[in-house]
Every structure is written in C-alpha cells, then in structure tokens.
Amino acid sequence: MSSSFEKYQKRRLISSYFSVVISIALVLFLLGLLGLLVLNTKKIADHFKEQIALTIYLKDTAKEVEITQLNKTIALAEYTKSTTYVTKEEAAEAHSKEIGEDFMEFL
C-alpha cells in the first residue's frame, strides 16, 4: 500500500516541478518584454513626437515678407524639425493630382 502512495507522491511531485518551471519561465519572459519596452520608450516617444504635422493657413492679404518671416521664426524654434511653405497654386495642383480631378471646376 505504501508503494502506491509513494508512486502517487512522485507523480504529484513531478507535475508540480513542471508547473513551477513553466510559471517561472513565463514570469521571466514577461519581465524581459517589460524591460525591452522600458528601454525603447524614448525611441517610441521621439518617433511619435516627430510625426506631428501642423498646417497653417494664411490670409490672402499676407505679404511675401511676412510669410518669409513667419517661416523663419517657426524654423528657428527648437521644437521644429522642418518647415515647408506651400503656395495656394502648389496646394491646388497637389490636391488635383491626389484626387485625380480638377476641383477648381466645381468651385
């Protein structure tokens, strides 16, 4: 009778070892993923910060000097990566190419 009890205890002990090993492996894996996320947080944050685009519409009465001055002011700011000035005509042409039709006909 004791031999069957000992076999049962051995089987139970082996299954508990197996579950402990799997549990520890999963915990270490999750800790590794968390560590990678923490290490790459700065890269991820910088990536999303650089993807912000800002569009500024100017009045038709804006002079070329004012436009140039505004462009330079924005470009010199430390938070600005790049600036691009697009005229009304260039924007209309790009939009026409994008939609495939001349939208000015409808206006």
From TrEMBL:
The keyword Transmembrane applies. It comes from the Bacteria. The keyword Iron does not apply. Pfam families: FtsX_ECD. Residues 53-106 form the FtsX extracellular domain. Keywords: Cell cycle, Cell division, Membrane, Transmembrane, Transmembrane helix. GO terms for biological process: cell division. The chain crosses the membrane at residues 20-39. One of its GO terms (cellular component) is membrane. This is Permease-like cell division protein FtsX.
